Input
Amino acid sequence: MTEASQRPNLRKRSSVFADADYSFTVMLLGDSCTGKTCLLIRFKDGTFLNNNFISTVGIDYRNKLVQIDQSKVKLQIWDTAGQERFRSVTSSYYRDADALLLVFDVTSRQSFENIRSWLSQIKEHAKESVQLTIVGNKSDLSGQRKVKIEEGRQLAASYSIPYIETSAKTGHNVDLAFNDLARRLVSSFTGSKVVMERILLRVLWFTMILKIISISQRHIFLGWVEPFSTIGAILHLLGTLATILCP
Output
């Protein structure tokens, strides 16, 4: 595909998001392998990755326009790495988030037990007005379930946080989880209609640096950076840049 043939797509994408009445930043949090990236791709593109992807390195980005009653709402959705080594990096962005989806895997007892730890970090770093939803993902794997529905509900209720179970594989409740969050954001918003996009460049540069280091195979020196050496990775990085510069 030529450069010229790609330009109309960028213009079209820009015009779509220019009509947004509201713009909010949403972050996906939770342990690694809970399906955060799959939830995001299911919501954004309506597809399931089925493990054909590389684990999130640092932070990734997508956006989507949703209709909430009479308003068009732009959701800037940040997908964060759940590994412990990235916690100090991702927590620095909590304060800029308008909403957080805290995800655990219903087939992983440990990811559920770690929800309280995540909530402690959120309390420490996020702003008081942040909207929260606890998400029990992989609900389609009923035969492998390690966390009962009622346990998830009880935990969420103890923190006065909404709870929902989803399946990125089947799409069950995925749109509902994001749209409910968007509705609550609109209902609670008291400022000007379009929110300032506060963290785009900061996170963009962090992601670019991290991935370029990976692509150049310097993971051997750094130790904790995973290899990311494909042409597809470079194209994805450029696509992320285009998305942010031409939202």
The mean pLDDT is 78.
